[in-house]
Amino acid sequence: MRFDLHVHTCYSYDCLLSLEALAVAVRREKLDGVAVLDHDQIEGALRLREWAPFKVIVGEEIGTADGGIGALFIEQRIPPHLSAEETISRIHEQNGLVFIPHPLSRLVPGRIAERKLLEIIDRVDLIEGYNARAPVLADDLRAQEFAARYGIPVAAGSDAHFAREVGRAWTEIDGFETRQEFQQQLHHARLHYTRKTPYAVPLATVLVMIPALGSLRALKRLWQRALRQPG
Fold first, then answer.
1. Fewer Cβ close by (within 10 Å): the C or N end of the chain?
2. Is residue 57 exposed (0-12), middle (13-18) or buried (19+ Cβ within 10 Å)?
3. DSSP class of residue 136?
4. What is the structure's pLDDT at 66?
5. What Cα–Cα distance (Å) separates residue 155 from each residue in 69, 80, 171, 189?
6. Rounded distance between C-alpha atoms, residue 9 and residue 181, angstroms
7. Which residues are registered as beta bridge partners of 68?
8. For 2-226, which CATH superfamily applies?
9. What is the pLDDT of residues 22-64, one digit of tens each?
10. What secondary structure does DSSP assign to 89-101, as a single string?
11. Which of 191, 30, 224, 186 is closest to 99 using CA atoms?
12. DSSP per-residue string spanning 17-48
């Protein structure tokens, strides 16, 4: 099965990709499913799962006090700004998986600091070994080596905020029906990627929000929010 394990929708504060447009892109790229990790929200993932003709893993990219932490297979939103430790506890209370997106990627704002990652590593279930938006391939390779050192499986995702980005990276995994089966299959998963998203595209993610935000002051608040967490 072909899964893009990191996509966003218009329910993220920095994304305008509608659920319908995402579904079209998934079919175009011949994916079998996606994990939706909107920033601090799960409503989009829940809505998409109701009608999508492909598998949808409900997730969330949570802006913790220590940097970004992802959750997979959750049913209730986890609020931002909690500590990494409390966030992980709440993910596991829902029987979800702790997923670390772009953990060692330079120029990616809001990522978790490596020192904090080392403190929580024994509670991490999955590490993103390739992120199509992370500009430096060497950082992805470092993440894969880091995960292997601690025996943690890796995944690939596009981190798509625009329809054309969907499927630029995906994870090949055997079929599954439950979270437990998914977690077991991850140890045999293979990462696939075509090309990096040009760094100008993440910048365009911010610029495209200007009309929706209505003012440069609001844009400044958005950018400050993205940069809030330590690198």
1. C
2. buried
3. -
4. 95
5. 14, 23, 6, 8
6. 26
7. 63
8. Metal-dependent hydrolases (3.20.20.140)
9. 999 999 999 999 999 999 999 999 999 999 999 999 999 999 9
10. HHHHHTT-EEEE-
11. 186
12. --HHHHHHHHHHTT-SEEEE--BT--HHHHHH
pLDDT for position 228? 47
- Residue 103's closest CA among 145, 73, 65, 75? 145
Tell me the three state secondary structure of residue 187: coil
Which residues have a Cβ under 8 Å from the Cβ of 135 and sit 6 or more positions away? 105, 106, 107, 108, 196, 199
Give me the residues of the chain with pLDDT under 50, please: 216, 223, 226-231
Two tokens, residue 142? 């470092």
Pairwise CA distance, residues 76 & 82, whole Å: 15
Question: Considering only CA atoms, which of 93, 100, 94 is closest in space to residue 5?
Answer: 100
Is residue 85 helix, strand or coil?
Answer: helix
Contact 2, 30 (CB under 8 A): yes
Helix residue spans in the chain (DSSP H): 19-28, 43-51, 84-93, 114-120, 137-149, 179-186, 200-207, 210-213, 216-226
